[in-house]
Design a protein that fits this description.
By secondary structure, the protein is an alpha+beta fold. The chain has one domain. The protein is built from 1 helix and 3 strands; from the N terminus they run βββα. It has a 3-stranded antiparallel beta sheet.
Length: 72
């Protein structure tokens, strides 16, 4: 369910709009900014599963690079 909790701006067709969809209201709890349900970026929607997969891939790459730099 998507609910608006503040002023809305009209989006004109043909224009790009990147969005972050949250599970909770960040106006009542700033920690809600970490409760990301989905991201819409350049017209493509990334759900929670896709975001988690991307994060796991990045973490693995960083770990591998850190190990390489340590000579392991």
């Amino acid at each position: 369910m998507v609910r608006a909790t503040g002023p809305l701006r009209q989006h004109r067709g043909g224009k790009a709009a990147d969005l972050v969809l949250l599970d909770r209201n960040p106006l009542t709890d700033i920690a809600a900014t970490r409760a990301i349900r989905a991201v819409i970026l350049r017209g493509k929607t990334y759900d929670r599963a896709a975001l988690d997969a991307m994060l796991a891939t990045v973490k693995a790459k960083v770990a591998a690079e850190n190990q390489r730099l340590r000579g392991g």
